DNA sequence: ACAATGACTCGCT
DNA sequence: GAGCGAGCCATTG
């Protein structure tokens, strides 16, 4: 638990919680929004740590292809997909359909932040 | 302190 | 157009 990293992690959690219902975003988008476009991996790592936190809809965060790459880290195997489908998101073979439609860009959806 | 891994992304072949 | 490899940053062994 690093305090310095907590800032970065906290930011990820903030954005993750801000993801509207029935919307998803990519690690790169969040990373870029945080000013660490090259640190998309760290966003994923933050999501991994999100298990230690609460109310972090990590299932709404996928890679830029819309693939549920992190579903392996969830409890079951299709839990992540189930959650997304419960929000009205169409998921097919671990891949989000209409990804561009359900994609949530913090730069566009969050006019004033930072 | 060094080396390896990871829920990613971009570029080249 | 699809596949493979390298780059980046932080955490862990």
UniProtKB/TrEMBL annotation:
Domain Methylated-DNA-[protein]-cysteine S-methyltransferase DNA binding: 7-89
Key word DNA damage present: yes
UniProt entry tagged with the keyword Chaperone: no
CDD domains registered for this protein in UniProt: ATase
Entry keywords, A to Z: DNA damage
InterPro entries documented for this protein: ATL_DNA_repair (IPR052520), MethylDNA_cys_MeTrfase_DNA-bd (IPR014048), MethylDNA_cys_MeTrfase_DNAb (IPR036217), WH-like_DNA-bd_sf (IPR036388)
A Pfam family it matches: DNA_binding_1
Domain of life of the organism encoding this protein: Bacteria
Protein name, UniProt field: MGMT family protein
